[in-house]
């Protein structure tokens, strides 16, 4: 199984999601997305895999979101994806992607962490 987790080790939900993956005997590729943010095209791809609009990836409670003066229109997926690539703290976490089946990759947001179990089954 090929699992990638966009992980923030300071986030309890992200840590718990990673723990569930590891307890299933899977060694995930860990992307520390605050240090290595996904670029705009990757954010678009993640939203597509999650089957949500890009604005569904927003952590609206984050001060960086609430105080943003350069935030694009929330319906502008491409603009918002580019903005998120420069403001990764605002990206919902953790995002877990299963690319084991290249023709049908799947993804979930680990909120709650147990959401990841659907990928591990």
Molecular structure report:
By secondary structure, the protein is α+β, with helices and mostly antiparallel strands. The protein is 34% helix and 14% strand. The protein has one domain (3-120): Glutaredoxin (3-Layer(aba) Sandwich). It has a four-stranded mixed β-sheet, sandwiched between helices.
What name does the CATH topology carry? Glutaredoxin
Q: Specify the structural class.
A: alpha+beta
Q: Count of helices? A: 5
Order of helices and strands: EHEHHHEEH
User: What is the molecular shape?
Assistant: globular
Assigned CATH architecture = 3-Layer(aba) Sandwich
Average pLDDT works out at 96
Give the full name of the CATH homologous superfamily. Glutaredoxin
Strand order of the largest sheet: 2-1-3-4
- Approximately how much helix is present in the residues? 25-40%
What top-tier CATH class fits best? Alpha Beta
Q: Uncertain segments of ≥5 residues (pLDDT<50)?
A: none
How far apart, in Å, are the first and last alpha carbons? 11 Å
Number of domains: 1
Tell me about the largest β-sheet: 4 strands, mixed
Radius of gyration: 14 Å
Number of distinct beta strands: 4
Strand content range: 5-15%
Briefly characterize the structure.
With 121 residues, this protein is of the alpha+beta class. Helices cover 34% and strands 14% of the residues.
List keywords for this structure.
121 residues, alpha+beta, Glutaredoxin, 4-stranded mixed β-sheet, 34% helix
List the helices and strands and how they pair.
Layout: E1 3-7, H1 12-23, E2 29-32, H2 40-50, H3 63-66, H4 77-86, E3 95-98, E4 106-109, H5 117-120
Parallel strand pairs: 1-2
Antiparallel strand pairs: 1-3, 3-4
């Amino acid at each position: 199984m090929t699992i990638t987790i966009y992980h923030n080790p300071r986030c309890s939900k992200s840590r718990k999601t990673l723990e569930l993956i590891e307890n299933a005997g899977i060694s995930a590729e860990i992307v520390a997305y605050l240090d290595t943010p996904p670029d705009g095209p990757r954010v678009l791809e993640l939203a597509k895999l999650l089957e949500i609009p890009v604005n569904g990836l927003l952590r609206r409670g984050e001060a960086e979101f609430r105080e943003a003066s350069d935030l694009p229109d929330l319906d502008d997926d491409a603009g918002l994806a580019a903005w998120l690539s420069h403001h990764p703290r605002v990206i919902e976490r953790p995002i877990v992607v299963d690319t084991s089946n290249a023709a049908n990759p799947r993804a979930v947001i680990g909120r709650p962490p147990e959401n990841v179990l659907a990928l591990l089954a």
